[in-house]
Specification:
Largest interface: A-B, 167 and 122 residues
CATH topology of the largest domain in chain C: Alpha-Beta Plaits
Number of strands of chain C: 12
Low-confidence stretches of chain A: 127-133, 138-144, 875-883
Structural class of chain C: alpha+beta
Mean pLDDT of chain C: 75
Chains: A alpha/beta, B alpha+beta, C alpha+beta
Strand order of the largest sheet of chain A: 24-26-25-31-23-29
Distance between the termini of chain C: 39 Å
Low-confidence stretches of chain C: 94-143, 311-347
Radius of gyration of chain A: 27 Å
Number of domains of chain C: 3
Number of helices of chain A: 26
Structural class of chain A: alpha/beta
Shape of chain A: globular
Helix content of chain A: 10-25%
Oligomer: heterotrimer
Strand content of chain A: 5-15%
Mean pLDDT of chain A: 93
Number of helices of chain C: 11
CATH class of the largest domain in chain C: Alpha Beta
Shape of chain C: globular
Number of strands of chain A: 32
Radius of gyration of chain C: 20 Å
Strand order of the largest sheet of chain C: 10-1-12-11
CATH architecture of the largest domain in chain C: 2-Layer Sandwich
Strand content of chain C: 5-15%
Chain lengths: ~900, ~200, ~350
C-alpha cells in the first residue's frame, strides 16, 4: 500500500526480516525505500537510498525535513488545517528555544525541569509539575490533553496568526536548514534534499509514505521527542490514519506490545491507566478519576475502565462504598523503573527479585552494575529455558573472574526455574501492530518446566493461603483478590482462556463476556482486566484464535479482519477517519479505506472505523458539549481532547512541546544549533560514583558508538547464542569500523580491538568495512563504532558462543518522559588488540555513592537531570574528568 | 486449519502450478518406480516427509514482534518440525532464521528440566524438587513483603506498598502471564514491576 | 531449454523437472534458508569461525551439513585508487575475477592480475574456475567499467547444489548412490553411498562434501522427501522475500527470463541468468536445475564462469556403476579409511 517506506531508527531487515518481506514486495511494486541510519546494514543494502547519519542527531535531520516541507509549501494543506492543531493558538507566555538559547519557557535550571503552564493553548491550562523533583514517567491521559481544555481553543485556519501552532513550528525549525543538517548530522545536503523530495513526491491525496522506526529512535535521552518529530512530519504530509502511511513502531519482542498494554511496568495499570501516586488526589478513587480523566474526547470514559479493572481484581469485595478497593493499591513516589530498582539493590533495601524471560546481566545498560546489584540481593528467582548469565552471575561473571567478587562471599540465594517454551503452553502474544494471536499448546514441557502462568498461579495460591483470614488492612488486596482460575491436567495448569476472559471483561451479574469497551461501566456492574482488550473474547469466543485470512485479493482484503484480533475493537489502522476528507469521502480512490456512507448513515470501509459509527462528518458539537459529544464530525483524532493530531504538544511531554536538537547524553560533539546547550537539560541520569559519565567533548572519547541487532541473533542472546544453528552463523562479538579509523589506530580487519568508556572496556573482532563511513560533522571528521550486543560470558551448550557484552559500556541515563536509556549513541574510544583485564575491572573498588547526596532530600536511587550534571552544557566537563 | 503445511496460493510470485504435483495420486507412487541404470534403494523408494499425516498445532514465533504464524508438528508428544504457516497473511509460510530455528529453541542442548538452586555462598548448582522450590520462593516473597512494608513514605505520604522485592521481564511472555504477574504482585503492594519495554 | 537428462532412475507419471530459481536482487542475506534447511534435514551445526574479509559469512561454503549457504559480497565505496587498480587489472585480462575483492575462502591478494586465495585448507574452486576462464579468451570475461561500478555494493546470494543436467558427481559415483530422481534432481542415497569421495572433485561447483562423522557424501536433496507429498522445499518455503523460488523447471525459467527483462527495463542492465536460458553450447553443465539471477560476474559469488564435469567425456557411466557395485560391500571400511586420511575440509 505504501508508496514510500522511510526507515529511520530501525534496521527492519535485520531485526524484523519477515516485516521486510513487505517492504520488498512494496519495492517490487514501485515503492521507494529510504534508510537513514548510522549503520549500513542489510536494510540499507536493499534500500533505494541509504543515508549515513551521526547517531543521535536524528531530530536535526527530521527538523530539517519539517522545515523543508513548510518552506517549500509541500505540506498537505487540507489535512493539516482540518485534522491537526496547526491552526490552534498558543498562549502568549510561550517562548521556544530560539528565544531562550535552547530551552523552552518555564525551565528551572536548578531542578532541570519545566513548569509547563506557559505551553498551554490560548485559554487552556496544563497541569504543572513545577518544583516537583520527583520523576515519574507520564501516564497516557496526560499525553492526550486530559485536563487540558477549558473553553474552546482559538483557531486561525489561514495559519497566519503569529501564535498559531503552524507559525510557531515554522519559527522553531527555521534554522534547521540543509546546511545546518549537513553540519550537525554529517549528511551531505544533496542526500538530505533527495530524501525530502522523495517523501514529498510520495505523500498527498494519491500517495502515502510510511515511517518505520524502532529502538534506534527510542533508546535516546531524546527518544520520545525523536518519535514526535517523525509524527509531526507525517502529520504535515497527511500520512497518519491512512493506508500505506503511519508511524510504525517495530517492537523488539514477541509480546513487548502486550507487556505494555497489560503492563509489567511500574507506572501504569492495564490499558494505560496510570498507577496511583502518593498524592492527595490519588488517595481516593474520585480524586484519581478527576485527575486522570478528561472532560472531552475518549478519555471521558476513564472511570468505566478503572472501576471495571478493580472489579476484575477484587470481585464482589470491590463495591461502591469502599471505592472498589482503589485506596488499597500501592502508590508510586517517583521513578521505580528498572534502573532505580537496580540501584536500590546496590544501596540496600531490595531483598529479592523475579526475572522472567529477561537477561539483565547482558541486556541491561551498565551491565557490570547490574551484575553487582544481583550479588547484593538476598534471593533471586530466574525463569528461563536454559541457564543464563543473570542466573549464574555468582559463578563466572566478569566481576568474579576479575576477583572483585568472590563466589563464596556472595550471599544471594538463586532459584533457576525451568520454563515452558512457546509451543508448550497456550496463550496469546500481541504483535507490533497490536494484533493479538493465540498459540495452541502442541506438547508438554519437559520435566519440571512450567509456564509462567503455572508459576504465578501456584505462587498466588501459596501467598493467599498464608494470608487467608487476615484482618490487616494491608492484606485486604490479597485476601480479597479474585483468583479462581480453573486448573487442568496432572500439573494443575491454570486455564489460559479463563484469564483471557477476565482480561476481556464480563457482566458481573451474568458472567457474559462484554463485546467491547463501550459496555464497561463505572457502577460496578462490569469487570474488565484491560479495557483496550475488551472484545477479544466477545460472544464467549476466543477472537484471538481466529485464523481466516480471507480473500487477500479482494478490495481491502489485505486487511484480513478475521485473522487474530487487534485492539482496540479489532481496528487495524488507528485514527482511520483521517483516511477520508472532512466530508467523509476518500481522499482518493487509490487510498480509499474508511468513508461515510450517506445512504446507511454510517461510517463504512475495509476496517472498523475509528470513529463513532453514526456521527456525521458535518456534526458540529454544541458549545457546552462534554465527552465524545465534544468531538466534531471532522475531528479524527478522538483520543485527543481536541480531536486533532498534535504538531504541538501542550501537555504530555516533560521536555518541550516541540522536538529540539540536543546532543546525546554522552557526545564528543558540541551543540551547533544551541551552543549554550549540550544534552537535553531535562534528560535524566544517576550521578553516582558507580555510574561514571563520559564528560562532554572529552578528548579521551572522541568516537560515537551505536548499537545494532543482527538477523542471526536475538537481543541479549539467550534465545540464539546457545542454539547451534544460529550460533554458527555469527560466532563472535565484533565491531564495525571504517577503514580510515582502522588505519589510524592500527586495527586490522579480522583482528582484535578494544572499545572503552568510563564504565568498561570490551574486546571484539574488528570488521573493517567501508559500509561504515566517516562523517564530516561541524567541519571535522567523525568516526562511528557500530556494535552488535548479543553476546555474553556464558554458553549453556557446547555449540553455544560467548563474547563480551556491549552493555558493559553503557551509562545509566534516561529520556525524561519514559526513562528509556540512551544506548544508541554514546562516546567511546577504540584501540587495537585485546583488553588486558576483565571488562569491568576499571570499576572494581568504586564505592557506590551519589555525588549529590548533599542536595536535600534526594534519594540515592532517584535520577538526576542532565542540567545537574553538566552534560547539558557543552564543555563543562570538570566534574566528570575527575572520575 | 488444524492440519496442513499445504501449499496455498498467496499472491506472491511463487509459481502457481506446483499444485499440479500435489494432485499426483499417492497410490501411483510405488507402482511407477522404474529401473534405470542406477539402483534405487529401499529408503529412497520409501522417501516421504516426516510430517506426513501428522496434525499441526498453530503457534506464533517467539522471537521478534512481527507475529509470524507457525505450524508445529508433533508425533506422540515429541516435537518433530516447526515451519511457517502458509495461511497467515503476515508471513505466508515464511520464517526468518530465528523462526526457522525455533524447534532448536525448544530442543536446545542446555534446556533445563529441573529446578537449579544455589545456596548463599554456594559454589555449585544443586537440584531442587519443584514443589519445594515453590514453597521456598513463596516464603521468601512473603518475608520480603513483611520486612519492607511501607504504609507511609519518608515524607509521610500514604503509599501502602513494599519495595522489598521486584519483578523484571514480560516482553517474551504471554499476555495472560503478564496479567497474573501484575495482578498478584500489585495486590501484594509491589510497584517495582518492569520489563523490556523500557529497555 | 536444457538437454534432457538421460539417466532418470525413477519414473513417475506426471512428475516433471523441478528446480530452484534464486533471485539475488531480492535476497536480504538473512540466512533463513540455511537454517530452514538444517532444521528440516536435521543437519548439525558444523562449526564456524569469524572469517576475516568474509563480511557476515562465517560458515564459509556449502558442505556435507550445510546445503544452503548465503554468500556475502561486500565492497562499498572503493577509493579512486582502488577503482583504478581494479580497472587496470581487469583490462590486463583478469579473466573474470575482480582483484582485491573478497570471495570464497578468504581474501584476494594481488597476483599478477589474478587473485589467489590465501585461506588455507579450503578448496580453491574459484581460482580454479577462474584460471580456466582466463585461458579462453573472451569467455567469462568481465566488462571492466561495469565491474568497477559494481564494486559499490553489498550483495547476498543463497548458494545451493545446482542439480546439473550433466551432473559430474553422478557420473563419477561408482556405487550408484547418486541417482537422478523423477523430478530430475540429483539425489545422493545415503544408504548406498560408501564414502569413496569420487564425486567431490567431480563437482565443478564444489558443492558435494563428505560428512565429517560418517564419511558419506552430502548435499542438497531438493527436499526429495517433501516433494513426495507436494511440499515445497524447506529453504524456498522459509525465504522471507521469495528470493528462492521453487517450481517446475520450465516455468521457473520462464519467470526468470521475464524477471531479467523487467530488471533491464528498470535500468539494471547487468542482470542475467546463471545456469539457465543459454544457448545449448554455452550451458553450464548442460543447464542447472537450480539456477540464479545475478547482477555481477559469477566469480563475485564464488561461482565459476564455466563448468563441466572433469570426467564427463571419458568415464562411461556403466563402468563406474559396475565398479561401484563391487566396492559397495566394503563401503563402511572405505568410508572409515577415507575419513581418517582426508578429514573434513570444514572445521
Amino acid at each position: 500500500m505504501a508508496d514510500c517506506i522511510w526507515i529511520q531508527g530501525s534496521s527492519l531487515s535485520e531485526a524484523h526480516p519477515v516485516g521486510y518481506r513487505w517492504a520488498m514486495k512494496a519495492r517490487e511494486r514501485g515503492a521507494k525505500l529510504i534508510h537513514v541510519d548510522p549503520h549500513y546494514s542489510r536494510t540499507s543494502a536493499l534500500a533505494h537510498q541509504y543515508v549515513p547519519i551521526r547517531a543521535g542527531a536524528d531530530i536535526a535531520f527530521v527538523g530539517g525535513l519539517i522545515r523543508h516541507v513548510i518552506e517549500t509549501d509541500s505540506f498537505f494543506r487540507d489535512y493539516v488545517v482540518n485534522y491537526t492543531n496547526a491552526a490552534t493558538l498558543v498562549s502568549e507566555d510561550f517562548r521556544g528555544p530560539e528565544d531562550l538559547d535552547g530551552v523552552f519557557s518555564g525551565f528551572d535550571p536548578d531542578t532541570g525541569s519545566y513548569d509547563r503552564r506557559s505551553w498551554a493553548y490560548e485559554g487552556g491550562e496544563v497541569p504543572s509539575a513545577a518544583g516537583d523533583r520527583e520523576h515519574t514517567t507520564q501516564a497516557f491521559s496526560d499525553q492526550t490533553g486530559g485536563g487540558l481544555l477549558e473553553g474552546d481553543p482559538q483557531r486561525d485556519p489561514t495559519l497566519e496568526h503569529p501564535r498559531c501552532v503552524f507559525q510557531l513550528l515554522r519559527k522553531h525549525y527555521a534554522r534547521y536548514t540543509p546546511e545546518m543538517v549537513e553540519q550537525v548530522c554529517g549528511v551531505p545536503q544533496a542526500d538530505f534534499l533527495r530524501v525530502a523530495e522523495t517523501l514529498i513526491e510520495n505523500s498527498g491525496r494519491e500517495r502515502t509514505t510510511m515511517l518505520v522506526y524502532a529502538v534506534g529512535w527510542t533508546q535516546h535521552t531524546a527518544g520520545a521527542q525523536m518519535i514526535r518529530a517523525g509524527a509531526i512530519l507525517q502529520l504535515l504530509l497527511g500520512n497518519v490514519g491512512r493506508p500505506g502511511g503511519g508511524v510504525m513502531a517495530m517492537r523488539g519482542h514477541a509480546s513487548i506490545q502486550g507487556s505494555t498494554d497489560i503492563p509489567t511496568l511500574y507506572d501504569i495499570l492495564p490499558g494505560y491507566l496510570p498507577m496511583p501516586r502518593a498524592s492527595e488526589e490519588d488517595g481516593t478513587l474520585a480524586g484519581y478519576v478527576e485527575r486522570m480523566g478528561s472532560k472531552r474526547g475518549w478519555w471521558s470514559h476513564f472511570d468505566n475502565y478503572i472501576v471495571s479493572l478493580l472489579k476484575a481484581w477484587f470481585g464482589d469485595s470491590a463495591a461502591e462504598d469502599n471505592g472498589y478497593g482503589f485506596s488499597y493499591l500501592p502508590k508510586i513516589t517517583g521513578n521505580h523503573s528498572h534502573f532505580p530498582t537496580t540501584l536500590r539493590a546496590i544501596d540496600g533495601g531490595l531483598d529479592g527479585m523475579f526475572v522472567m524471560g529477561q537477561n539483565p546481566a547482558v541486556g541491561s545498560q551498565h551491565a557490570g552494575l547490574q551484575r553487582r546489584a544481583l550479588a547484593k540481593l538476598k534471593w533471586l528467582v530466574v525463569r528461563d529455558l536454559a541457564d543464563i548469565e543473570t542466573a549464574r552471575f555468582w559463578k563466572d561473571s566478569p566481576e568474579v573472574a576479575s576477583g572483585e567478587l568472590r563466589t563464596e562471599d556472595i550471599d544471594t540465594e538463586v532459584f533457576l526455574m525451568p520454563a515452558a517454551g512457546h509451543v508448550e503452553k497456550e496463550g496469546h502474544f500481541t504483535n507490533t501492530q497490536r494484533l493479538l494471536q493465540w498459540r495452541d499448546k502442541a506438547l508438554e514441557p519437559p520435566g519440571d518446566a512450567r509456564s509462567e502462568l503455572h508459576f504465578m498461579h501456584h505462587l498466588a495460591k501459596r501467598v493467599r493461603a498464608h494470608y487467608a483470614g487476615s484482618e490487616r488492612e494491608r492484606d485486604w488486596p490479597i485476601v480479597n483478590l479474585r483468583w479462581d482460575y480453573p486448573e487442568r491436567g496432572e500439573h494443575e495448569e491454570p486455564e489460559a482462556e479463563s484469564v483471557l476472559r477476565e482480561i476481556n471483561g464480563y457482566e458481573v451479574a451474568t458472567g457474559r463476556p462484554v463485546s467491547g469497551f463501550a459496555e464497561l461501566r463505572a457502577d460496578g456492574s462490569t469487570a474488565g482486566g484491560c479495557w483496550i482488550y475488551a472484545g477479544c473474547y466477545a460472544d464467549g469466543v476466543n477472537q484471538t484464535r481466529r485464523r481466516n485470512p480471507g480473500d487477500l485479493d479482494a478490495p481491502g482484503g489485505w486487511v484480513s479482519p478475521e485473522w487474530g484480533w487487534a485492539w482496540p475493537a479489532n481496528r487495524r489502522i488507528l485514527y482511520n477517519r483521517a483516511s477520508a476528507d472532512p466530508h467523509g469521502r476518500p481522499w482518493s480512490e487509490r487510498k480509499k479505506y474508511v468513508w461515510w456512507d450517506e445512504d446507511e448513515g454510517r461510517w463504512a470501509g475495509y476496517d472498523v472505523p475509528d470513529f463513532p459509527a453514526d456521527k456525521r462528518p458535518d456534526y458540529v458539537p454544541p458549545d457546552d458539549a462534554q465527552g465524545m459529544d465534544s468531538i466534531a464530525g471532522d475531528d479524527p483524532f478522538i483520543m485527543m481532547a481536541d480531536g486533532r493530531g498534535w504538531l504541538y504538544s501542550p501537555s504530555g511531554l516533560l521536555d518541550g512541546p516541540f522536538p529540539t536538537h540536543y546532543e546525546p547524553f554522552e557526545s564528543p560533539v558540541g551543540n551547533l544549533l544551541y551552543p549554550e546547550m549540550g544534552a537535553d537539560p531535562a534528560a535524566i541520569t544517576w550521578d553516582r560514583t558507580d555510574n561514571p559519565i563520559n564528560p562532554p567533548a572529552d578528548p579521551r572519547y572522541p568516537l560515537v558508538a551505536t548499537t545494532f541487532r543482527l538477523t542471526e541473533h536475538h537481543t541479549a542472546g539467550s534465545m540464539s547464542r546457545n542454539l547451534p544453528w544460529l550460533a554458527e552463523l555469527q560466532p563472535e562479538m565484533f565491531a564495525e569500523i571504517d577503514p580510515v579509523l582502522a588505519a589510524e589506530r592500527g586495527i586490522e580487519d579480522g583482528g582484535w580491538m578494544t572499545i572503552a568508556t568510563e564504565r568498561a572496556e570490551i574486546e571484539a573482532r574488528a570488521l573493517v568495512t567501508p559500509r561504515v563511513r566517516p562523517l564530516q560533522v561541524a567541519g571535522k571528521t567523525l568516526h562511528q563504532v557500530c556494535l552488535p550486543w548479543h553476546w555474553g560470558s556464558y554458553a549453556s551448550s557446547e555449540d553455544g558462543v560467548t563474547g563480551d557484552a556491549t552493555n558493559d559500556l553503557v551509562v545509566l541515563s534516561g529520556d525524561p518522559n519514559v526513562s528509556i536509556q540512551e544506548s544508541k549513541a554514546f562516546s567511546c574510544d577504540v584501540r587495537a588488540g585485546r583488553r588486558s583485564r576483565e571488562t569491568t575491572a576499571r570499576m572494581a573498588g568504586v564505592r557506590s555513592e551519589s555525588w549529590l547526596t548533599a542536595s536535600g532530600d534526594h534519594r540515592a536511587d532517584q535520577p538526576h537531570r542532565a542540567a545537574e550534571t553538566g552534560q547539558s552544557t557543552h564543555g563543562s566537563g570538570e566534574k566528570g574528568s575527575s572520575a | 486449519m488444524e492440519d496442513s503445511g499445504r501449499i496455498v496460493e498467496n499472491g506472491s510470485n511463487r509459481p502457481r502450478t506446483f499444485s499440479r504435483l500435489r494432485r499426483l495420486p499417492v497410490v501411483g507412487r510405488a507402482a511407477d518406480w522404474g529401473l534405470g541404470p542406477r539402483a534405487v534403494s529401499k529408503n529412497t523408494r520409501q522417501a516421504g516427509p516426516r510430517i506426513a499425516g501428522l496434525k499441526a498445532d498453530v503457534s506464533v514465533c517467539p522471537y521478534c514482534s512481527v507475529g509470524c504464524s507457525q505450524l508445529v508438528y508433533t508425533r506422540h508428544g515429541e516435537l518433530v518440525d516447526i515451519e511457517g504457516n502458509p495461511d497467515s497473511p503476515i508471513n505466508q509460510g515464511t520464517l526468518c532464521p530465528k523462526g526457522s530455528a525455533s524447534r532448536q529453541l525448544i530442543q536446545q542442548p542446555g534446556r533445563l528440566t529441573k529446578v537449579r538452586y544455589r545456596r548463599p555462598g554456594g559454589t555449585e548448582w544443586e537440584e531442587l524438587e519443584l514443589e519445594q522450590a515453590m514453597d521456598m520462593i513463596a516464603e521468601r516473597l512473603i518475608r520480603a513483603r513483611e520486612d519492607h512494608w511501607q504504609e507511609r513514605d519518608e515524607r509521610g505520604r500514604r503509599v501502602d506498598r513494599t519495595l522489598g522485592f521486584a519483578h523484571l521481564g514480560g516482553a517474551t511472555l504471554d499476555n495472560e502471564e503478564n496479567y497474573l504477574i501484575k495482578k498478584l504482585f500489585t495486590a501484594m503492594g509491589a510497584v517495582q514491576i518492569e520489563n523490556q519495554a523500557r529497555i | 531449454m536444457s538437454a534432457a537428462p538421460t539417466e532418470i532412475a525413477i519414473h513417475r507419471e506426471g512428475a516433471e523437472r523441478m528446480g530452484f530459481f534464486t533471485d539475488t536482487t531480492v535476497c536480504i542475506g538473512c540466512k533463513a534458508c540455511e537454517v530452514a534447511c538444517k532444521q528440516w534435514n536435521d543437519l548439525p551445526a558444523d562449526g564456524s569461525v569469524f572469517r576475516k574479509g568474509m563480511s557476515y559469512d562465517h560458515t564459509g561454503s556449502l558442505g556435507a551439513a550445510t546445503w544452503r549457504h548465503v554468500r556475502f559480497v561486500e565492497r562499498l565505496a572503493p577509493s579512486a585508487a582502488e577503482r583504478e587498480d581494479a580497472a587496470s587489472r581487469l583490462a590486463a585480462g583478469g579473466g573474470g575475477g575482480v582483484p582485491s575483492l573478497p570471495v570464497d575462502g578468504g581474501r584476494w591478494t594481488g597476483d599478477g592480475g589474478r587473485g589467489t586465495v590465501d585461506s588455507p585448507g579450503d578448496l580453491d574452486l574459484v581460482a580454479l574456475a577462474e584460471s580456466g576462464a582466463g585461458e579462453e579468451e573472451g569467455s567469462g570475461g568481465v566488462d571492466v567499467a561495469g565491474a568497477v561500478a559494481q564494486m559499490d555494493r553489498w550483495l547476498f546470494m543463497s548458494d545451493v547444489c545446482k542439480h546439473c543436467t550433466n551432473a559430474g558427481c553422478l557420473d563419477a559415483c561408482p556405487t550408484g548412490a547418486i541417482i537422478r530422481t523423477e523430478f530430475q534432481t540429483v539425489f545422493i542415497q545415503p544408504d548406498v553411498c560408501n564414502g569413496c569421495g569420487y564425486c567431490i572433485p567431480s563437482c565443478p561447483f564444489g558443492v558435494v562434501d563428505r560428512d565429517k562423522i560418517d564419511g558419506r557424501a552430502g548435499k542438497c536433496t531438493l527436499c526429495y522427501d517433501r516433494l513426495q507429498d507436494g511440499l515445497e522445499p524447506a529453504c524456498a518455503k522459509a525465504c522471507p522475500t521469495d528470493s528462492i523460488l521453487f517450481g517446475p523447471y520450465d516455468e521457473l525459467v520462464d519467470i526468470a527470463r521475464r524477471r531479467v527483462a523487467e530488471l533491464h527495463a528498470r535500468g539494471i542492465d547487468g542482470a542475467y541468468l546463471y545456469g539457465a536460458g543459454d544457448e545449448p553450447q554455452d550451458q553450464l553443465a548442460g543447464g542447472l536445475g537450480a539456477f540464479f539471477l545475478l547482477t555481477e560476474a559469477p566469480e563475485r559469488f564464488g561461482l565459476p564462469a564455466q563448468a563441466e564435469s572433469p570426467i564427463q567425456e571419458n568415464a562411461p557411466v556403466a563402468t563406474a556403476a559396475g565398479l561401484g557395485a563391487a566396492l559397495a560391500a566394503a563401503g563402511a571400511v572405505v568410508a572409515t579409511f577415507v575419513l581418517s586420511h582426508r578429514g573434513g575440509r570444514r572445521r
